[in-house]
Design goal:
The structure is a homodimer. By secondary structure, chain A is an alpha/beta fold. Chain A is built from eight helices and eleven strands. The longest helix of chain A has 12 residues.
Chain lengths: ~270, ~270
């Protein structure tokens, strides 16, 4: 039996059951991704339907549901084991504020057509799609942990397949938000292609003088707005340890990261 | 007769003849572009052969020749009028330190094959290609100045054509450096395609809290290195006016902006 932990996020606002020392454990990436989801716009009709593709144990989706009371979050995860962690998180009494608004689907997000719809990935069914796709390209060193290997196995054309699904399941004007490595930028931009416009790219740097280690990318389905490069996030200040204030607020669910150019309201 | 000015650059290190109040006058963009050209690597055999595509009055090329004594710079410019300004700059006695190392070609940088070679755009002939392609897309407001219109007329596929030429005229391992608007990033990355790798992208922001208004992109012919996003340049500090020190040094030719990952040495 795999050892597991129950970890507090957003300073105790929700909890996640996760494999201990194995698999892809949720961290800052998931919290920054969740912060890209804005609340319902004023006058908007709820619920805000959010899909998390490749949700793992569900960290980003729970963070969205925790911060946004109007959000209904569908977690899509290929690995039965990771989906099971998400289901067990959704059964925790500590998560009663979010549990009724979380659904877990075991699904391959690269499905197409009718099979995709049958898996819960419904055409035009969501207002916001978030994703933190697995990485580690083939040329990276193989990790010895098979569970982590599944989470990190980067297939050729992954972004094309995942972003194709995002384009299908978002309503027109809906928002795609993702976190990835800078080296994936070319593939991400190509996959957005004519499906998405208004790309906004935010580099994330560990320290001000270092190259970015992540990028946040958001885009609007069907938009023709121009690509923009936004001011970078710097995780650590001069003292070398503490998160800078604004990033810490995003990481802990106290604020979200709005786009410059928004899509159509819900 | 068009009025003109003779302007000092790099605090008097070289001078440019430019149309007064008309055409595309050289400024910070050209100086940042020039700063992307590094000197000969230690032990490298000169000269360092640099091509400036769409050189206008030649500002970036003169800046390179001024800072790097081993540089031989070929300016390629479509407009006879702008090329003439470059030739007249090359005839100024004030520019005697650079004049013998500057050549001006009236040429369409989108030529292909034998015609391209005949125009001076010689296959594998250069160590470094720089470009600051004209912009203003069709959907931008038309400018009433016809000379500026030529310089700013953004054609569909411009980056594809210009970067195709850069890929042809660079030696293997040679460097492409360009400055552009963020909204051109998708087209630039697509045009680099399999011709170039090791893209390094540096956003340039007027102020820390504003979106980038330019990007610097460099790439190595034939490289398979990963795309990197480097720390941004911030032009203006809190006081709102003076260039920040490091950027000021680049703008005035006192330093250059080296890549993280260099190509093969000359």
């Amino acid at each position: 039996m795999t050892e597991e932990t129950v970890d507090a996020f957003h300073r105790g606002a929700f909890y996640l059951v996760q494999p201990k020392g194995r698999g892809h454990r949720a961290g800052m990436d998931a919290m920054l991704l969740a912060a890209m989801v804005g609340p319902l716009q004023p006058g908007g009709k709820g619920p805000l339907k959010v899909a998390d593709l490749g949700a793992g144990a569900g960290a980003a989706g729970f963070a969205v549901a925790s911060r946004i009371p109007e959000a209904e979050v569908s977690l899509f995860e290929l690995s039965p084991e990771m989906a099971d962690y998400a289901r067990r998180s959704a059964a925790l009494s500590e998560n009663e504020a979010t549990n009724q608004r979380i659904r877990v689907f075991e699904a391959d997000v690269t499905l197409k057509g009718a099979a995709r719809n049958a898996a819960g990935l419904v055409d035009d069914g969501f207002d916001h799609v978030i994703m933190n796709p697995p990485f580690n390209e083939a040329r990276d060193r193989k990790t010895p942990d098979p569970l982590k290997q599944v989470a990190h196995a980067m297939a050729e054309g992954l972004f094309e397949a995942w972003i194709r699904t995002a384009g299908a399941i978002l309503r027109p004007g809906g928002q795609l938000s993702l976190i990835a490595r800078p080296q994936s930028l070319a593939e991400i931009i190509a996959a957005c292609g004519k499906r998405f416009g208004g790309l906004e790219i935010t580099p994330v740097h560990a320290r001000a003088e270092e190259d970015a280690f992540r990028i946040l990318v958001s885009a609007i389905k069907g938009s023709r707005a121009r690509l923009q490069m936004r001011p970078a996030f710097i995780m650590h200040g001069q003292d070398g340890h503490a998160f800078l204030g604004a990033v810490d607020d995003l990481n802990n669910g106290r604020s979200h990261y709005p786009r410059r150019v928004t899509g159509k309201s819900v």
